[in-house]
Design a protein that fits this description.
The structure holds 2 protein chains of 2 kinds. Chain A is built from no helices and 11 strands. In chain B, strands 2, 5, 6, 10, 11 and 12 form a 6-stranded mixed β-sheet that branches. A 4-stranded antiparallel β-sheet of chain B has the order 3-9-8-7, with no helix packed on it. In chain B, strands 1-4 form a two-stranded antiparallel ribbon. Classes of the chains: A mainly beta, B mainly beta. Chains A and B meet through strand 5 and strand 6 of A and strand 6, strand 10 and strand 11 of B.
Amino acid sequence: DSGVTQTPKHLITATGQRVTLRCSPRSGDLSVYWYQQSLDQGLQFLIQYYNGEERAKGNILERFSAQQFPDLHSELNLSSLELGDSALYFCASSPPGRGFFTDTQYFGPGTRLTVL
Amino acid sequence: AQSVTQPDIHITVSEGASLELRCNYSYGATPYLFWYVQSPGQGLQLLLKYFSGDTLVQGIKGFEAEFKRSQSSFNLRKPSVHWSDAAEYFCAVGVFTSGTYKYIFGTGTRLKVLA
């Protein structure tokens, strides 16, 4: 158990809908990262927040957005969902450290999103 | 463009045998290099990482990896595989490009361990 929690575990929805995935980082961690893992695209880094502010952006679609709240939990919002958005979405957190790549990330168990 | 190649999609080894998982990257400079393991139904766990210095890096669970600049490779090794090592392994690079940080992952190698 990494200490990172993600809810819900599973989510089934229809095309065109909007969903919100939630992540609670480990106690004391300031950074939250979001990843998407799908059969088509493999594992992709989406976005990182550090202490409430966006710090790095990867292959995140414009239909997706994220935020980190004052209590450091984070939400990933996915809108206008398409079939291709079906994937496993991981959240990771890391403690404050020396730099973006030097901080060890601890991954949550993921949220499996199915778009029908 | 930056990329990571894991040429072996599946590898099967017998328990107790040695293991080497290959990883090659394409990047203009030396990237940050990582190996992660993903057990079925689980998130990723960091095995080891390389930033600079000694090119042979020791990680958790008895894994090690060697960075070879001339070959743009960062292969993962373990001298004696245990049945619990059966999982999917991802190589990743961290780069700073176009003003932002990015992680780029390989497609993964699924390891099967025979008893």
